[in-house]
Amino acid sequence: MKRCYKCNVLINSNIAKCPLCKSNIEDDYKDESVFPTIPNMYAKHTLILKLLLFISIFGSIVCLILNYIINDKIGWSWFVVAGIFSFWVTFITGIKRRHHFMRLLFAEVILILIASILWDYFTGWHFWSITYVLPFLCISYVTILFFLRIFLKNIFRDYVIYIYINSLIGLVPFYFILRDLLAVRWPSIICVIFSIFSILALAIFNHRQMKNELERRLHI
After folding, report:
1. 3-state DSSP assignment of residue 34
2. How far apart are CA 113 and CA 115, in angstroms?
3. d(C-alpha 69, C-alpha 100), whole Å
4. What's the predicted TM-score (pTM) here?
5. Is residue 76 part of a domain?
6. 163 within some domain
């Protein structure tokens, strides 16, 4: 590829003169790449990724240490570590495989919740599935969608409806709080606050999109 320095244009031809100004083309222009530069999505959000990785590692270590100090053994903290690991697997899968990912992610959350409740029920019903799994699943799901929304701009339509449904599920622990059925309340309280915040955010900032999606999917 050659350049006419008088017109400052690139000429993809072997002609000796510029077709615009008829000036002689003296030198080949070799600095310009033939292929366009595609911005790297990961490089654009490097700080966010590093911050997420730091929080994940730091949170896992803190939970393991606190669990060992309080109970002299490592128990519930493994659920936190497993949840953080699941977050990264789901997040990376969502980045690489975008087709129908929102639907698959929501189905994954429901299956994990049902499996946890059945496991809890058939092992003596210690209520850990409602006390811990349900709240942390809802919070993790909204968090994953929030960060995927930053990286993937084209998931907005599915993003609205699925985060709305998940937020409604996140209000379920409020029933158990009112009935005083929880020995440990703070996960459910955080989940309810998180869900209310998500619903309000959608209603205030994305009212029109949420209304259109509800009408399109539910025919209301």
Report:
1. coil
2. 6
3. 43
4. 0.57
5. no
6. yes
Is 77 among the domain residues?
Answer: no
**Domain around 2:** 1-38
Rounded to 5 degrees, what are φ and ψ at 212? -65, -40
My answer on whether 101 and 169 are in the same domain is yes
- For the chain (length 220 residues), average pLDDT per consecutive 10? 72 74 65 48 66 85 83 69 75 64 76 86 87 86 74 62 83 91 89 90 76 65
Same domain, 30 and 97: no
What is the secondary structure of 81-106 as a DSSP string?
HHHHHHHHHHHHHHHH--TTHHHHHH
Best CA proximity match to 87, nearest among 152, 142, 48, 161: 142
The residue written with tokens 């599915």 in the block is 158
* Number of domains into which the chain is organized: 2
pLDDT of residue 27: 61
pLDDT for res 29: 44
Check the CA dihedral 146-149-152-155 and report its sign. Answer: positive
100 and 193 in a single domain? The answer is yes
